[in-house]
Inverse folding.
């Protein structure tokens, strides 16, 4: 491998880690606060991608501009799903939420398949092929923009959780649900809002992904898996952990993908299992509940 | 459960002779089934039995021991590949020894990976098992010299659908007997103790690691049986068909629909699941997964303990109705 190739791989990894952090953040929030591993996270990402695609086809809206629309729509959907379904079974054994969210994943993906067919889509913009040239290394504008928007949203969520009243209520509920209830927090509503925020972040990630990769209704599943691996690598708890997990994961994926494309998942999951067994709290995390 | 005298009087449990008669009738019906239906129809019944086998296996680790294993398809695939490769090997090993070898290898692999990953709890265990299954799929696809990679292997043809049916039926019966025996054994009680509180079980002197590994290995054995049968019946074994996550989900769903941690739950759940699936397949071809997803959601929300729980309540004289479904929700909801 020449140094130029290495440089390009490193740049690709950094560009990838932004979107992955955004994907994992919503997943991590839902998991950390409510102890739900949301297997329908990928379906929310796909919904975001199709929303961006639809708005671009119909009204020529740039997906960068329609990110807030996706987020609002997905927030509403996530809020409803949590309020009407998941809240009903949240105290059942873990398998219940696992199966419920998986049922939702099947349902949503199949509905998208029904309405949009399984054709591979992508959003092509006037500046899609263009990019910065830094010596031998290329940085496409679209990916750079996606990285910046992702990082902005990640930091915004961190600030929201630390500073705002709702954010503090969410964190308090995650720490001790009974104590939170005693101080007057409406736990059911907080849960719904948390799930909604998780879905909104997935929607934003989907909108960004619609410009970066070609997609079809089945895009989401692999991103749910990646989100999980990132959460395990980084550990749950805060935004910084997610960023560290996403960066580590992105480098592993890009390097393994360049050297051993056929075994990329085997290597990734091998690393995952080793990390899980040796350091269950994650590389960066202190203790995951 | 129902302590009132009226409840005891309304006990609707069937008498022992009637139950034995029903069981005998069912058995005879199942035994002569291949003569009653077309070979093509029989395939559906064989696939019900194979799903039941997988669900019976999952029941040991997921139902009794309470570990959400999300990668049992790995053992299905190991069983399929081992059976196929041994039959195709230089020694031309016959089907039954090959099937047994597949089950033993699956159990050995389960014990080996179980030792580290059964230390994990909850979601972490679930995803670690999922990861193992995904990794095995890729390895099966990449190990060209052994598995012929993504193309897969072709087994000798045997177009005798009654043969596969009887093999599957025999193994399901074995699964029922094994589950029934173990449920009331030291091992079975140990599993339930681990499910309810692992630390307490350890303090009571239960060798938790050994018991968990036993449950996991046993679950692998039955998944591998199913894999071997399906492989021989389908002739062709390829990584993406035999390591797909849908199988894992189907066995879990079958178990949950029927009632996990019960003897008959997996078989009943597998029958109902396959029945519904076939029905929706023929009526709503394109929206079939949507309907299936909807059913999963409804079952998890309203009948989280499955149909066996319904049967138990009916036999102890409780009223079955809206109130019971709502009570199921009330037990685990949050306001």
């Amino acid at each position: 491998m020449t140094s130029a190739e290495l440089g390009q791989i490193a740049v690709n990894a950094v560009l990838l880690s932004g979107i992955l952090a955004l994907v994992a953040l919503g997943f991590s929030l839902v998991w950390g606060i409510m102890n739900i591993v949301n297997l329908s996270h990928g379906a929310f990402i796909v919904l975001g991608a199709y929303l961006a695609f639809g708005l671009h086809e119909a009204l020529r809206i740039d997906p960068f501009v329609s990110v807030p629309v996706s987020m609002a729509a997905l927030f509403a959907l996530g809020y409803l799903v949590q309020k009407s379904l998941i809240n009903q079974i949240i105290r059942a054994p873990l398998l219940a939420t696992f199966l419920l969210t998986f049922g939702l994943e099947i349902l949503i993906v199949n509905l998208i398949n029904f309405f949009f067919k399984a054709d591979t889509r992508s959003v092509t913009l006037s500046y899609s092929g263009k990019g910065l040239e830094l010596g031998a290394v290329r940085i496409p504008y679209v990916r750079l923009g996606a990285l910046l928007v992702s990082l902005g949203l990640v930091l915004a969520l961190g600030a929201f959780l630390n500073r705002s009243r709702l954010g503090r209520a969410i964190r308090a509920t995650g720490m001790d649900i009974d104590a939170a209830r005693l101080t007057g927090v409406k736990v059911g509503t907080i849960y719904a809002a948390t799930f909604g925020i998780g879905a909104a972040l997935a929607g934003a990630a989907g909108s960004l992904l619609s410009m970066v990769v070609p997609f079809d209704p089945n895009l989401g599943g692999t991103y749910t898996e990646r989100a999980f691996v990132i959460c395990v690598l980084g550990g749950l708890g805060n935004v910084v952990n997610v960023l560290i997990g996403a960066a580590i994961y992105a480098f592993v994926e890009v390097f393994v993908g360049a050297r051993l494309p056929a075994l990329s998942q085997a290597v990734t999951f091998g690393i995952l299992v080793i990390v899980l067994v040796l350091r269950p709290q994650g590389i960066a995390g202190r203790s995951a509940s | 459960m129902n302590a009132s005298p009226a409840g005891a009087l309304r006990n609707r449990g069937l008498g022992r002779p009637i139950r034995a008669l029903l069981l005998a009738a069912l058995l005879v019906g199942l035994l002569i089934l291949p003569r009653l239906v077309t070979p093509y129809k029989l395939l559906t019944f064989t696939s019900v039995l194979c799903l039941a086998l997988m669900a019976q296996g999952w029941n040991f680790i997921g139902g009794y021991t309470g570990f959400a294993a999300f990668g049992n398809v790995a053992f299905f695939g190991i069983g399929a590949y081992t059976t196929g490769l041994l039959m195709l090997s230089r020694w031309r090993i016959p089907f039954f020894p090959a099937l047994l070898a597949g089950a033993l290898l699956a159990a050995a692999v389960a014990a080996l990976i179980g030792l580290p990953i059964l230390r994990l709890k909850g979601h972490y265990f679930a995803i670690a098992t999922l990861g193992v299954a995904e990794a095995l799929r890729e390895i099966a696809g990449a190990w060209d010299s052994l598995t012929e990679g993504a193309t897969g292997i072709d087994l000798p043809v045997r177009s005798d659908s009654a043969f596969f049916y009887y093999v599957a039926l025999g193994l399901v019966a074995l699964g029922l007997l094994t589950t029934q025996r173990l449920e009331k054994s030291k091992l079975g009680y140990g599993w339930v103790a681990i499910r309810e509180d692992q630390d307490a079980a350890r303090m009571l002197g239960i060798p938790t690691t050994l018991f968990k590994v036993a449950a996991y290995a046993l679950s692998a054995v039955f998944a591998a049986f199913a894999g071997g049968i399906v492989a021989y019946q389908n002739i062709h074994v390829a990584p993406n068909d035999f390591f797909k996550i849908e199988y894992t989900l189907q066995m879990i769903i079958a178990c949950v629909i029927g009632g996990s941690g019960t003897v008959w739950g997996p078989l009943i759940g597998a029958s109902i699941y396959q029945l519904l699936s076939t029905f929706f397949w023929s009526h709503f071809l394109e929206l079939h997964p949507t309907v299936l997803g909807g059913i999963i959601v409804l079952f998890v929300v309203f009948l989280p303990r499955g149909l066996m729980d319904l049967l138990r309540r009916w036999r102890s004289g409780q009223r079955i109705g809206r109130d019971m479904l709502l009570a199921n929700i009330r037990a685990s909801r949050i306001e």
About this structure: Residues 208-234 of chain B form the longest helix (27 residues). The longest strand of chain B covers residues 153-154. Residues 1-10 of chain B have pLDDT under 50 and may be disordered. Chain B touches chain A through 48 residues (CB under 8 Å).
